[in-house]
Amino acid sequence: MLRNLNELAISSRRNYQNNFINEDFRLNRDFKERFSQILEGRNTTIQFFDYSAEITSSSNNKIFCPNQWFYIATFVVEFASELINYRNVLDSIANSEVDGMSRTQFYEKVKNLKDKDIEDFAPEIKEAIEHYYPDDQNSVNYLCRFLTDYEWWFGSKTVNRHDYYVSPTLNLLGLVNVSQTYVADIVYFLASDRHLMQYALDLREEVQELIDQKDFRTDSPAENLIVYGAPGTGKSKYLEDNFSDLTRVVFHSEYSYYDFIGSYKPTPLYKQVETSLRRISGEEFEVGEPIIDYQFRPGPFINVLINAVRRSDIKFTLLIEELNRANAPAVFGDIFQLLDRKTDGSSHYKINPSEELKNYLMSIEDVRRKFIDGIFIPKNMNIVATMNSADQGVFVLDSAFKRRWKFKYMSIKEKGFTHENSLITYAREDFKWRHILSSINRKLKNLGINEDRLIGPYFISPSEIGDSTSFSSKLLIYLWDDVLRLKRDNFFDSEIRTYSDLVSGYASGIDVMNIKDDIYELVAEEEGERELEQQEQAGEEQEDE
After folding, report:
1. Exposed, middle or buried, 54 (CB in 10 Å: 0-12/13-18/19+)?
2. Does a structural domain hold residue 280?
3. Is residue 541 part of a domain?
4. Which domain holds residue 329?
5. Quick one: 29 and 151 in the same domain?
6. Which helix (H) or strand (E) is 356 found in, with range?
7. Alpha helices, DSSP H only, in 4-136?
8. pTM, entire model
9. How far apart, in whole angstroms, are the C-alpha atoms of residue 538 and residue 195?
10. Are 242 and 143 contained in the same domain?
11. Tens digit of pLDDT for each residue in 303-337?
12. Would you tell me the crossing angle of helices 355-362 and 300-310 to the nearest 10 degrees?
C-alpha cells in the first residue's frame, strides 16, 4: 500500500522549517560506521572529522560537507523512503513486460507521461498499475499521479532517471541545487537502508535534544572499545577522529599495574645547607643535602579518572596503544571489575582501592568526597585501545576480559585515504600508492594469506611516502620476514634468494614482487569505470538540454 507522497512532503517541510536549528554537533559513531558501509558498497569512501566530512567518489572527486547536511537530511528521510518505494513498484511493473514493452521502452513512455493524461497517453500502463494493485484504488491513484503530476510530489527530473529524488529533496529543504546537491544523495542513502534510516531518525532526536541542552560534549555514554586489525589500517587515527581529550599510553611487555594505576616512588628532597658553590663561570648556587622520600605517583588511569570526576561536562578518553603487547588483565588488576558499565556509561560496581591509592585520593580536596565509598569509572570517561592482530609473540586476552569491551574491526581500505595518489617509483615507473597497495594485497590474498597480515594504507605514513627507503626498509622487510616466511618463492621474483637480493633488486628497478602487470590491470579498470561514469553523466546533461 502506497502512502500519499504529497502529505509526506508537506509534513516533512513543515517539520524542517519549524525545528531545524543550525548548530555544530558531532555525529555518533553508529551513524558514521553504517553510513561508511553504505558508501563502500558504492565504491565511495568517507572520512569523518569532528564537525565535517570528506567524501571521495569512485572517480576520485572529493566533496566536503558539514555535519549539518546529515542532520538536514533526516527531516525528509521518511518522504524519500516512500519515494524510493514508488520507484521500486514502478521497476516491478516495468519488469513484467507491460503490453510486450521492454524495460527501456516502458521507461521511455513513462518519461513522456509528465503533464499528460495517463488514460489518453498510456492506458496500458494504467492497466498494469491496476493489475499490480487489484484491491487498492488509493495506491493506483497515487502511482498514476506520481507519473503525471510532478508538482504533487515536488519533483522536476523525470522518474526514469537515476537522480529523480534530487529535485524534490532540495525543493522541500529550500537548498541551492548547484552547491548542495549532495544533501539529496545523503537523503537517498539514509532512506535506502533500513538500519541507517533508523539511525537517522535517532540522530534527529539526539541532535534536537543536544541543541536544547546546548551541550555537545557528552552526547553518548562512555564505553570500553578495542579497535583491531591489520597493520596500517588507521586504528589510532580512527580513535583520534572519534574521541576527544585523549591521554595516550603505550603498553609493552614490561608494563605493569603500578605503571598504569600508580605506586610509591622515590622522590628526592633537598635539605638546605649554608655551603655554596661556584660554577666554572663564577656563577654561585646553593647546595642542598639530598634526602630520599617516597610519595604516591598516579599512573595515567588515575590521572584521567580524576580529570573526569572534576569536569563532568567534558568526556575524557584514556587511549591504550598496543593493548595486547602487555598482559592486559594483569595490568588492569582489580580495576578490571570497574569495566562493567551501566547504561549511562558509569561503572556498575565500585571497588575499595589499596591503602596508598585511597590515601592519595583522599588528599585531593576537590575529589575526595567522590571516592569515599570506593573508586569507579564515571560516565564521562572512555577507555579505548588499539590491538594489532597480526603481531607475533603478544599476550592473549582471556574471555572474561574481552567480554567487558566492545570491538571494532578496521578493514583494509585500498582507496579514499590521505596519500592514495602519492607516487612511488617501482620497477622504473611511477605508480600511485593505492595501485601498488591493491596489487600487493590481491597477490597475498591469492596465496591464502590471512587478512590480518595484509597491508593497510597507513603502513607507510603520508610523511614517509616520499622516501623510497621507507618502502624497502619497512614494507619489504615486513613481507619477507613476517608475512611470506614460508611462501617467498611464490611471491617474489625467482631471482630473489635473500633479503639483500630483494633490496638491491628493488633499488635496481626490478619488478621484485611480480606485480607490475596487476598494477597495469588496476589502472585500466579505473579508467574504464571513469569513462563509463562520464558517458552516463554526459547522457543526462544532454537529456536536460
Report:
1. middle
2. no
3. no
4. 224-261+299-400
5. yes
6. helix 355-362
7. 5-19, 29-40, 67-73, 77-94, 103-111, 118-121, 123-132
8. 0.63
9. 34
10. no
11. 999 999 999 888 999 999 999 889 999 999 999 99
12. 40
